[in-house]
Amino acid sequence: MKQVEGGVTAAKGFLAAGVEARVKYQNRKDMALIYSETPCAAAGTFTRNLVKAAPVKWDQKVVEESPFVQAVVVNSGIANACTGGPGMECCRAEAECAGKLLHIPAEAVLVASTGVIGMQMPLERITAGIEQLVREKKATLQGGSDAARAIMTTDTVPKEIAVETVIGGKTVTLGGMCKGSGMIHPNMCTMLGFLTTDACISAELLKKALRDDVIDTFNMISVDGDTSTNDTVLLLANGLAGNEEITAPGPDYDAFCQALRFVTVYLARKMAGDGEGATALFECRVVGAASKQDARILAKSVICSSLSKAAIFGHDANFGRFLCALGYSGVSFDPENVDLYFDSENGSLHIFSQGCALDYSEEEAAKILSAPEVTVTADMHMGAEEAVAWGCDLSYEYVKINADYRS
Amino acid sequence: MKQVEGGVTAAKGFLAAGVEARVKYQNRKDMALIYSETPCAAAGTFTRNLVKAAPVKWDQKVVEESPFVQAVVVNSGIANACTGGPGMECCRAEAECAGKLLHIPAEAVLVASTGVIGMQMPLERITAGIEQLVREKKATLQGGSDAARAIMTTDTVPKEIAVETVIGGKTVTLGGMCKGSGMIHPNMCTMLGFLTTDACISAELLKKALRDDVIDTFNMISVDGDTSTNDTVLLLANGLAGNEEITAPGPDYDAFCQALRFVTVYLARKMAGDGEGATALFECRVVGAASKQDARILAKSVICSSLSKAAIFGHDANFGRFLCALGYSGVSFDPENVDLYFDSENGSLHIFSQGCALDYSEEEAAKILSAPEVTVTADMHMGAEEAVAWGCDLSYEYVKINADYRS
Question: What is the pTM of this model?
């Protein structure tokens, strides 16, 4: 497996575009299209928030009921959440407009939105945007890159990646793009993620692969603990790589899952590191846990803790805050038996053992914590299970962004 | 029942003091003593964090096993948490020192600490502080007020209150003090709360009264979602009011609980409103819930949401964030059937109904949200149960305080 250039257009047969539709933002791309020349199997994971945006409801139905999927229309600026009946009608109108122009059924069109909650969508500008997207779609790196820019809200950088692997003697490509960067606490974050592959794989296994993957990738990141109304990850597979269809677990499926994991971990880390106002990626690795689920809960509790996040922002080796977050996670353990370590490109430090702080240099600790990617490792000494969670520090900028997000 | 002047020294027989012991802070009071002239029944509720500070462990044992309690020694600056064996030895030494000077058993002395986690306590300064406290203790308003100041960390104001009520023909007084203001998410916040009363009530009913009370008071506040290692609320009753001992539920017990509730709600609101960096008290009232527990979970989810807190700081009527927080709370409800209201001293507004925003003035909404106490009410239309939770807005100052708390 190797990383290759590009994102959602890296796999064979996928075209994309990003345009300025002025949905809410001005002078920037705010609508994206992903289109496959041939029908795709589709898998999706969606927010578990009870308040679900209209496009989430639309996509859930499409992924469950449609025989195939061939396009995804995305806008930033307005989330089409808490918009009642008019919001659902807008989804249908989007899908019908794209379907007509692309000569595919409306039920083969997925839609996704991110932005302000509670505002109604400007349907005329949306349909004009779709017309432009269909005209400009292309199978080039530029097409994918335009789309990755168009889905950004408070993100500071676009996030895309692609990998190649060999499955059944054929080169299979899997690419993806996603956006953060606030209201990120995927239970399934508004994260939106779009993954495309030319692998030939049954819809059933595609869904299993995505479902099993997000538990340890997108669901292990948090920027602010708020689970969005719009979280959506979609995975489209058009089969153009020509490998023998993957219909059962085995080496081919494993190779596919490995490629998927590489792409989703990359995107998840990018999303966390580019969290609203973030100055650092804050990774927590829990090892020696009694169960995998314990390890996940412990790691996520640490990266979600406001005080731990503020300590990372301050480059402050306030390890008690990390222990405190482990302690209120709900997982049972012996605090006297936990070892804590700090790691970054600036060095490594064993900071806490057997219930007490070790004799460490505050200066060295501060140096380690001032790197752009910081890892706190907790060894629970209870078993062999591990998990990693990704968050970011809590900065003045986060507050600023969110105190006047709508203006 | 009426509010009277004072705090922990308002009830008969209670003395208090606050002194400068230089535990960690300089030039401010940082140790407090509460002392009752006669033995007290005691009740306590403590952090449910698995990582429990040494004084929490000490107090749990005392409250469970000691026949009576007569003194509480408190310090700010260092939390005596994550301090292993030496931390426990320090608690014993504190209790022994105070016991000897006050001529009471060490097992009748409760201890509490708040401040930095992981640092060992300077025992010599602590014992010198206790000597000074015992010399300076007094039954005056000043004594209580000195104690209330000494327990502050990042609090901007001391928090104390007292009420009088009549039980069995006798005037009974109940007073209290507490401190916030970060790592506040009591499951039982570091909140520390100390309540004193001259009511005559059995230890068993005293414990029941406190246990039943905190569920809807201290446990319904959050500043940052971090449940401290040190949370402690202690309630001491010395019986000097001379009422017939309350040994069973009934009108006397109800009158006592009502006085307790008045004091704890006052202190809980003060703590939330004085949360680290807070510019406003952020109250969420959930009505029409199917169960009391649902109402509590929903209300707390809203006041804990970083994005909702940031919206309050920005005076931004971003109601979708409140709905979003209700939606991920875990409680089941129909989002199309929720009504949302904003209230403050600046006015009232019905903002969301039947799945859509109502036609409201952004200007009016911003005015309402710019008051020092803001209430968001959610009517779930599912039943008759209600709950109230108290938090605060999320400001630049919160980040500043916590990015360099130890320096």
Answer: 0.79
